[in-house]
Design goal:
Chain B: One of its GO terms (cellular component) is plasma membrane. The complex is a heterodimer. Chain A is built from twelve helices and two strands, in the order H-E-E-H-H-H-H-H-H-H-H-H-H-H. In chain B, helix 3 packs across helix 14. The model of chain B has no long low-confidence stretch (mean pLDDT 86). The chains are: A mainly alpha, B mainly alpha.
Chain lengths: 314, 278
């Protein structure tokens, strides 16, 4: 009796285990995804929806929604000269920044792709700016671009491009401040983009290059007919990320120009910072955030529409 | 023979030109180190000089290391960058493991939700994130600075690619031998993805070490500042950018540059292996 009972027990326990195991097996894939999902929702999706709601509401200083106001914030923000200026500055910056931010690192990747004397050294030198933070880069360039004691003006004077009397105050000049910031941003991002593009260029199959060589293709023909098409997914990725980086630009403005001179470098995210955090106007700041997001989103959609034409996936 | 010589000469000219270009690109960095050794007079002199008068002028470094909060800022940043990098890797690899090896209901939707975070730039959601962190009482805390950085969609994507190179028959065979998911994860998946892990963790460390806007928003106690925010405070305190700032910049650049000098080729290799079709 006792042995059969214990056998029965064992059978039941084994049965429970398999049921338990089944539940675990079923849940397992979700359990692996769950941790990252919690953070994705808490710090990406939830705040995004919250920003959207704020932009449609009146919000008090504690961040509580007082009442729904529809599109009033949007109508209000587009009649603010400062915000319209910020849109213009952001677009101009993106236009100045993105072409340089893609073409320069791609050229460097082509240069570093050939293995040569010193190639290890200059490959590292090309990538090195990636190690430098935004704030450090900003102070270094502030010094290099200094009106009186900066090396850039001194160099221009030595080679005779510029007279001492007309030294440009790069970061405090209404015309030059924004181009200067875009050059600084290009430098800040050049290292990582260079490495992404170098990895892509290195992945171009040797056979293709060799057969092109046999046909007597010139260097630039090979670049345009083989390398660019094959690396086009990476180029496209860099183009998209840099476009978003351009639209979201804020730190160089915050550190170097505070939006000046005469608001000529006041970008949209800088506007979010000044209205949302400095003045504590959460509704207006959120509205500006959403408009900035939409701008980036529309630009990306355009990119993806034209992606099929220019980007080759195999 | 002559054409060969011409080709060789051309190649040397190209190498020298490339090296010169590399030096030009890295010049701002080199210049910052030089400025750290300058006394105030040399720093403000005209015509400007690249090199300091002598390399034994350590006052700027002494000032930064002993009379400022820079060492504390560095400790804060180091802690934050290391912890965020580890958490990110673990969360991304867990998720990637699930996406690479399991078939389950809602898999595509969940993958899309995680990749979709790339579409929401952190700059666009600053206000509610600030309010969340503030309501949780996490302003001026390490967790408050770190929490928004734990999700990295690109890492999930890259690890999924990397795990997909492991054949499912290998996994089945391992499971028949009594291997469980966690064991398989730690003993097969992680070693296989070493190159990707190295590349992504170096990249992540540098990226987190270098963040500026978010740590600025959620900290206001000086001792909780990260280095990037801290040096801007230094600039504000000393009324303008002076040589000591450059000593501070030189000091805070050291960790990332060391990581770079050693890890740079691994990063390229890691990116390349991650982008292999799978």
């Amino acid at each position: 009796m006792s042995t059969s009972k214990s056998l029965k027990d064992r059978g039941q326990i084994a049965g429970k285990k398999t049921l338990g195991r089944k539940i675990v097996e079923f849940q397992k894939p979700y359990l692996f995804v769950l941790p990252i999902l919690i953070f994705a929702v808490a710090f990406s999706y939830y705040p995004f929806i919250r920003t959207l709601l704020y932009s449609l509401s009146a919000v008090n200083k504690q961040g509580e929604i007082v009442r729904f106001v529809g599109l009033k914030n949007y109508l209000g923000i587009f009649s603010r000269e400062e915000f319209m200026n910020a849109i213009g500055v952001t677009l101009e910056f993106t236009l100045l920044y993105v072409p340089l931010a893609v073409i320069l690192p791609f050229t460097l990747a082509l240069i570093a792709n050939k293995r040569k004397l010193f190639s290890n050294i200059y490959q590292t030198l090309f990538a090195l700016p990636m190690a430098v933070s935004v704030s450090a880069s900003c102070y270094i360039f502030q010094q290099l671009l200094h009106r009186k004691i900066g090396l850039v003006n001194y160099f221009l004077e030595v080679i005779g491009v510029m007279q001492n009397k007309t030294n440009i105050d790069w970061l405090n000049d209404k015309v030059w401040a924004l181009p200067s910031l875009s050059v600084i941003m290009v430098w800040i991002h050049i290292g990582f983009n260079f490495m992404l593009l170098l990895a892509a260029v290195r992945n171009v199959p040797d056979e293709l290059i060799e057969s092109a060589n046999l046909e007597g293709c010139g260097y630039w023909r090979k670049v345009f007919k083989i390398v660019i098409p094959i690396t086009s997914p990476t180029i496209f990725f860099v183009f998209c990320t840099q476009m978003v980086a351009g639209i979201m630009m804020n730190a160089p403005t915050m550190i170097l120009t505070k939006g000046g001179p005469v608001n000529s470098t006041s970008t949209m995210i800088y506007y979010v910072y000044t209205t949302g955090f400095r003045s504590g106007n959460y509704a207006l700041g959120s509205t500006a955030s959403i408009v900035t997001f939409l701008l980036a989103f529309i630009f990306l959609m355009f990119n993806f529409m034209y992606e099929k034409k220019g980007v080759v996936y195999d | 023979m002559i054409p060969n010589k011409i080709i060789k000469a051309k190649s040397i000219v190209e190498s020298v030109f490339s090296l010169a270009l590399g030096i030009l690109i890295a010049f701002p960095l080199f210049y910052a180190f030089m400025c750290g050794f300058k006394d105030d007079a040399t720093f403000d002199s005209y015509p400007p000089t690249i090199f300091p008068k002598d390399f034994t002028y350590f006052d700027n470094f002494k000032h930064v290391l002993f009379d400022s909060l820079v060492p504390r800022f560095m400790l804060n940043s180091l802690l934050i960058a290391v912890v965020v990098t580890l958490v990110r890797l673990l969360l991304s690899m867990f998720a990637a493991y699930s996406f690479a090896f399991f078939n389950f209901k809602g898999k595509n939707v969940l993958f899309f939700i995680i990749i979709g975070t790339m579409m929401i730039p952190t700059e666009a959601v600053l206000i509610p994130n600030y309010i969340t962190i503030s309501k949780l009482g996490l302003l001026n805390s390490y967790v408050g600075i770190m929490a928004v950085y734990f999700v990295s969609a690109i890492q999930v994507f890259m690890f999924r690619q990397s795990f997909k190179t492991i054949s499912s028959s290998l996994r089945e065979a391992a499971f028949l031998d009594g291997c469980g998911d966690l064991q398989f994860f730690f003993e097969i998946c992680i070693p296989v993805s070493k190159a990707t892990i190295t590349a992504l963790s170096l990249n992540s460390f540098v990226a987190v070490w270098n963040t500026y806007l978010w740590p600025l928003l959620v900290t206001n106690r000086p001792e909780m500042r990260t280095v990037q925010v801290g040096i801007t405070m230094l600039a504000a305190d000393d009324s303008g950018v002076k040589a000591p700032i450059f000593a501070a910049i030189a000091i805070i650049l050291l960790p990332t540059i060391i990581i770079f000098a050693f890890g740079q080729r691994n990063i390229v290799r890691g990116i390349a292996s991650g982008s292999v079709k799978g």
